[in-house]
Amino acid sequence: MKAVFKSVAFMSMMGAVAYAAPITTVPWDGHPGAVSFTFDDSEISQLNNLGEYFEKNQDIKVTFFMTGGMNAGNQSKYFPMAAKGHEIGNHSKSHSDLTGNGVNLKSEITDYKYTLESKGDFEVVSFATPYCYYNDAVEAEIAKAHIVNRNCQGATKYKWDEEPVWERISSDCYQGNTQQSKGNMSEAKQKNAWTVQLNHGVDGAGFGYGITPSDMISIMDEAKAQGLWRAPMGRVAAYYRAHFVIDKATSTNIDGGFKVTWTSPHPAMPKSVPLRVKIEGADGKTVKQKGKEIKAEDDGSYVIEFMDLELEVVGAAAPESSSSEEVVSSSSEETPLSSINDTPMSSTDAIAQNFQWASQEPANFAVFSATGVMVKTFVATPQSAEESFRALQVPHGTYYLKDLKSNYIKKVVR
Q: How many structural domains does the chain have?
């Protein structure tokens, strides 16, 4: 008769100790970089000349920044674009210089956000400063109800692991240099970064700010050719902000697995922020959010909902059978890993150095992930245990081997 060693005593011994973050966000939703195309002032040439292109290219979504100070009569024609995955952003109530004396910033910025939202079924999470003028007071008001602000001090390349000032995301204001726009995207790809482009009319007019439809299409086609993530500014900003939170979130043990919780980085985050992530210790387990199972993608990643603010990995993978395995019980006769008491597994290196694994007698071993979840069992001599472990079909990472007879534990990296 065979039985699988259960990690009940091990998990109980570890209690609610928090472990290193098991979730890692896949940069830019699996792309080598990101670009956000933004269009200001409800210039109707944007829809007239690009509407058909957007219909045929569903993998390009953009941001339309609305203001009550210019072309407000065109706004109703833009709102349906939100249902197609494009973004409606806030460009202020009057499009005035917000740094001027006597400007009512609440009315211009925060109140106008809610005015826009009242006109359709969409969320407004992005702002764009008129004329790109800003100061501390302007940025403070923006930050109350928006997760990101766009200005135009140049095409900065925002790298994945360098958190920017969210109220000061710079963009390249198009002024006739198509090759510069394409070069900005190429540089973003090289740096695994995000870049933003600002456009006005799409008719070649507009005091040097307009772009011809053919040039705008060629730039967006180039973004596709480079494999960049072509997403609205608010969508990228939410994904980007979320990664700085969830990638640091630690796990705690629960019966049969582990749980990860985190908090939202801003009250104005969108109601839904899908994240593509890698989860250490999830192989052979069930990943759940709010009771709903999340299936792995073909590449082993998971698309989770950041705004659920928690995730569970539960269940144990069945170990590979071996004719030489002995019965290992999970009863009270099993001795807890008293050698390490409540010390987190990631801190046992010094203790492991004192263990003597010299015996040639076969023994049962259990393999635990860095988060304390058992993933395999096997039989080997203590002297050959590490070599036997490396032959197992488990993902690369940090693991811990436990000799079930002696209760010795050893850290190994595959």
A: 2
